[in-house]
């Protein structure tokens, strides 16, 4: 299997399970791993040093919202999205286009301000872009934008559609739904995205997760993934 592997929700309070997952991925010779960092949390000097260490080891940092929590629920779509998928994580859905742009700009600036480089990838929390088109973020410094259905190259306007396999099975209903999706997308003929959340390896689909990682033979980064991008 060809796959790009990411760990979502990298925050001060998730650094311990993220470290466990990186060890697990190293056991399966999966590298580099893309780490989706939430800047607006209470980062300590030690936490920032850990991010720098992971980056120095070859892992890739990416922007992932600001607080990773919506300040309000706006409208029926957001309410449905929260109930089915995102709970309270989809902070873009609580903002207008100007607010989204300000959040993304602030996210990118945080990395440079903390000696963490200039990440190429931005992923909205819960992959929920909100009321703005990908082109509306093209001038903010990120090269790639990942949504639920595709990865967008903001420089060229191209995109690549590919499935996401996830394992955040903290309820029986989520375990059933994610297990069914894994059964389908595990046979996908092209590359897939494997999206881990920090405690997935402790949850109901641990066995499925381990089997899927063992099947990865060709780990990709986002540059390699987008080399075969579809036309927008």
Automatic annotation (TrEMBL):
Pfam assignment, any one: DUF2334
Database matches in InterPro entries: DUF2334, Glyco_hydro/deAcase_b/a-brl
Signal sequence region: none
Database matches in CDD domains: CE4_u10
Biological process according to GO: carbohydrate metabolic process
Name by which UniProt lists this protein: NodB homology domain-containing protein
Species of provenance: wastewater metagenome
């Amino acid at each position: 299997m060809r796959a790009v592997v990411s760990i979502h929700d990298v925050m001060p309070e998730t650094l311990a399970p993220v470290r466990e997952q990186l060890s697990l991925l190293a056991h399966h010779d999966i590298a580099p791993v893309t780490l989706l960092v939430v800047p607006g949390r209470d980062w300590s000097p030690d936490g920032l040093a850990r991010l720098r260490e992971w980056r120095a080891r070859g892992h890739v940092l990416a922007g992932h919202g600001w607080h990773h929590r919506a300040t309000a629920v706006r409208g029926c779509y957001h309410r449905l999205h929260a109930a089915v998928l995102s709970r309270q994580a989809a902070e873009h859905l609580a903002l207008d286009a100007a607010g989204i742009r300000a959040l993304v700009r602030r996210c990118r600036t945080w990395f440079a301000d903390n000696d963490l480089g200039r990440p190429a990838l931005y992923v909205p929390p819960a992959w929920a872009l909100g009321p703005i088109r990908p082109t509306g973020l093209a001038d903010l410094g990120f090269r790639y934008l990942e949504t639920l259905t595709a990865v967008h190259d903001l420089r060229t306007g191209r995109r690549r559609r590919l499935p996401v396999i996830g394992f955040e099975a903290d309820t029986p209903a989520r375990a059933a739904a994610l297990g069914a999706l894994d059964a389908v997308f595990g046979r996908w003929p092209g590359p897939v995205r494997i999206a881990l959340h920090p405690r997935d390896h402790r949850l109901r689909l641990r066995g499925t997760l381990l089997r899927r990682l063992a099947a990865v033979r060709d780990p990709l980064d986002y540059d390699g993934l987008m080399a075969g991008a579809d036309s927008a």
